[in-house]
Specification:
InterPro entries: Kinesin-like_fam, Kinesin_motor_CS, Kinesin_motor_dom, Kinesin_motor_dom_sf, P-loop_NTPase. GO terms for molecular function: ATP binding; microtubule binding; microtubule motor activity. This protein is α+β, with helices and mostly antiparallel strands. It is built from 16 helices and 24 strands. Strands 8, 12, 13, 14, 15, 18, 21, 22 and 23 form a nine-stranded mixed beta sheet that branches. It has a three-stranded antiparallel beta sheet with strand order 9-10-11, covered by helices on one side. Strands 1-5 form a two-stranded antiparallel sheet.
Length: 475
């Protein structure tokens, strides 16, 4: 259902007779909440239930009004939880200790904050090796990594030299594994597993190695990129501990010529971008696939890649002609020492941006020219947002997120509501020095964008966590 301010969301609740997921019609008028039950939305309270024996879900769902009104309706009739408890006691083998764990759990504020101070977007530079065509044409090396591995030096036309500093420089000899370790991706993934929102995107000229960095070669584990290595780490981490129970779902889509196509259902070729107060911008009607193990994520990635829009031109024989975004939604639940329940939703966006390019260099015509113009327009919009956000005088004013679908979707990531890493991929060749400079200028601006990542639970999410919790079956 549409999640905007005027439309309802689907809220599956427990049937008071047999605990099936069903509509709210089965819930009768119940007495007001007892005095011992409290709910403080301003302290990020999460409504949780430890009913471990839910049955199969019903196909019918009543659409409820979302947000605070819905939360308050549930709380004002919180006797329904007592009803569930009584019925659970009658119809299942659950013990009193199981039933008593139905409670409202307030998450510790300090636990949610990764850092008490603001930080900036981490920007990494990856220099790819020379390709066969560049070697054949005798192009010279114009990009150098200094010994500190943070400073990059460029030999510009006219004998000029320029130096720029970033979080880290990954030189052309870095393997995929070294790249993964250098970016400290594992630390980011750990943050996502406890409920933070993470965005990792690759930016740069066509043919600079963005897709290789993000995807790699999926047929050879040695050459896995950041995405498959992240999948491996996440499931290894989940399977090695018992403190939290997890449920992971994934979406995968592309933005091609300002149209959004679901890569998991390529018949959906023109999905709308919606906005609502609680969620911000989001893509409507995407397929969300359950992923129970590493292989599920890898198969999903392969399927999506097979549906991507690919083109060929002078700069790249296998060029992605779209911006591709794969998102993992990580739902989890755990039990504290006091038997309280904590339910979280982490999120990871893996973003492979289409490459910026000059029409003269790529020699595109016809439909390919339209593609290039669309790509360059959306990347220009992204650059304008980065420029505004990096300027202290402008960041409090209007940021032009609505100029493209790409910037709408990345607005939360760029505006400091989560942890963001930018990987700028560049060519070492003097032939590409102007495009390299353009990429590095964007990167230099991006590293001034500030963020402070805090786990935030809005009313709509709190309600949906009832449903999530039941399916995770924490107890």
């Amino acid at each position: 259902s549409k999640n905007n301010n005027d439309n309802p969301i689907s809220l599956p609740l427990l049937d008071s007779k047999n605990f099936n997921i069903t509509t709210s019609k089965s819930i009768q008028k119940i007495s007001p909440a007892s005095k011992n039950t409290s709910f403080h939305h301003d302290k990020k309270s999460v409504l949780t239930s430890s009913l471990s024996s839910s049955s199969s879900s019903s196909s019918s769902m009543k659409k409820f009004k979302k947000g605070k009104g819905l939360i308050n309706d549930i709380i004002s009739n919180s006797g329904m939880l007592e009803n569930y408890t009584r019925n659970y006691k009658k119809t299942s083998a659950g013990s009193k200790s199981d039933i008593s764990k139905i409670r409202y759990d307030t998450i510790d504020e300090e636990e949610l904050d990764l850092d008490s101070k603001e930080d900036t977007i981490s920007v990494y530079i990856r220099i790819r090796p020379f390709n066969d065509n560049e070697v054949k044409k005798g192009y010279e090396k114009a990009v150098f990594c200094e010994e500190d591995k943070r400073t990059i030096k460029l030999n510009c036309p006219g004998g000029k030299q320029r130096s720029m500093m970033y979080h880290s420089i990954c030189d052309s000899y870095y393997s995929q594994e070294q790249m993964f370790e250098e970016l400290n991706i594992k630390s980011l993934l750990d943050s996502a597993l406890i409920g933070h929102h993470i965005t990792l995107f690759a930016f740069g000229q066509t043919g600079s190695g963005k897709t290789y960095t993000i995807n790699g070669l999926l047929t050879h584990p040695e050459y896995y990129g950041i995405m498959p290595r992240s999948f491996e780490y996440i499931y290894d981490k989940i399977n090695s501990q018992n403190e939290r129970k997890y449920s992971i779902k994934a979406t995968y889509f592309e933005i091609y010529n300002e149209k959004i196509k679901d890569l998991l259902n390529p018949t959906n070729t023109s999905l709308p971008v919606r906005w609502c107060r609680n969620r911000g911008f989001y893509v409507e009607s995407l397929v969300e696939q359950n992923c129970n193990k590493f292989e599920d994520c890898l198969d999903l990635l392969k399927l999506g890649n097979s549906n991507k829009s690919i083109g060929k031109h002078l700069l790249n024989d296998y060029s992605s002609r779209s911006h591709c975004i794969l998102t993992l939604n990580i739902y989890s639940a755990s039990k504290s020492n006091k038997s309280k329940l904590s339910i979280r939703q982490g999120k990871i966006h893996f973003v492979d941006l289409a490459g910026n390019e000059k029409v003269k260099e790529s020699q595109t015509t016809g439909d390919s020219l339209v593609e290039t113009m669309s790509i360059n327009k959306s990347l220009l919009a992204l650059g304008n947002c980065i420029s505004a956000l990096s300027d202290p005088k402008k960041r409090e004013g209007h940021i032009p997120y609505r100029d493209s679908k790409l910037t709408k979707i990345l607005s939360d990531s760029l505006s400091g509501k989560g942890l963001t890493i930018m990987i700028s991929c560049i060519s070492p060749s003097n032939h590409d020095i102007y495009e390299t400079l353009k990429t590095l200028r964007y990167s230099s601006r991006a590293k001034h964008i500030k963020y402070k990542s805090i786990i935030k639970l809005n009313p709509e999410e709190e309600v949906n966590y009832i449903y999530i919790y039941i399916h995770i079956k924490i107890i």
